[in-house]
Amino acid sequence: MAGGRKGLFCWDTPEAKSAQWLWALTRRCGVDELYAAFPREAEEQEAFLLAAQAEGLKVYWLTGDPSWAADPEGNEMLRQAEWAGTLRTAHPETLRGIVFDVEPYLLDEWDGDADALMRSFASAAQCAYERARQLGLEMILCVPYYYDTSGHAGALETLISSACDRVAVMNYYREDEAGHIETEAACAQAHGKGLIHIYELQPPGEHGLQAINTYYGLGADALRQSFRALRQAYPQLALDVALHDAEALAEVMDDE
Questions:
Q1: Is the entire prediction scored with pTM above 0.85?
Q2: Measuring CA to CA, which of 40, 90, 128, 185 is 20 to 30 A from 80?
Q3: Is the N-terminal amide bond of 221 cis, ω within 30° of 0?
Q4: 117: helix, coil or strand?
Q5: What letter does residue 14 receive in the DSSP assignment?
């Protein structure tokens, strides 16, 4: 399994007619994959995917809500997979998969019984993964870098081994980045899965971010140096990179 792809998160997806800045950004930064939260209007989805196809991009349906972790049957995750599957049928060369960003630690229930919530989430993700495979969708699952060090190593292994094709690690802490993903890298390699290392670019102060959590203000060279070091640390791993998110990246590049 080869790595080296570059993904970009786009939560606030523009309409196709006003997305020229996004296409220019992906070209400038060598983005291969776009993880986009789609508008629900079918006509706009069609226009966006056709524009992305013209740019040679592989697009993934980006979605997620913390509450989905509380349903072990994964009903909402399954619905999302079905929607993505419908788009893949219409655009098989462009719509390649689905990215789930489900963060159970944001729920109030986390403080009561985090273990039960993680078991529920793992079950939901497994259900979604089974359906995604049936629909011909690649499934990417976002996880924070600290599940293994906060008592959830078992659930993390389940998520990687049987609930995704690639695990996307939100490694939002600039010290010891290679060490933070050691468990995830070993598990991904053992089970033949890919790993996406996500870099945060949003400014400190947003979403509780501190300066140590983001590359905001450090420039593209700092990102490249970090990723070179990660590739050297894990030469046998199918390692990709992703940037969070498009608007923040545009700001970074404006400063270059």
A1: yes
A2: 185
A3: no
A4: helix
A5: P
Work out whether the CA dihedral 224, 229, 232, 238 comes out positive or negative.
negative
Q: Kindly report, residue by residue over 78-104, the tens digit of the pLDDT.
A: 999 999 999 999 999 999 999 999 999
> What's the token pair of residue 174?
């600039």
- At 242 the three-state DSSP class reads strand
List of long-range contacts for 49-53, beta carbons under 8 Å, 24+ apart: 49/87, 49/90, 49/91, 49/94, 49/95, 50/16, 50/91, 50/94, 51/16, 51/19, 51/23, 52/94, 53/91, 53/93, 53/94
> Angle at which helices 153-162 and 109-134 pack, to 10 degrees?
10
E strand or H helix at 240, and its extent?
strand 239-244
Packing angle of the helix pair 182-190, 153-162 (nearest 10 deg) = 40
H helices present in the chain, as ranges: 20-29, 42-54, 75-90, 109-134, 153-162, 177-180, 182-190, 220-233, 246-254
Specify which residues 59 forms β-bridges with: 34, 95
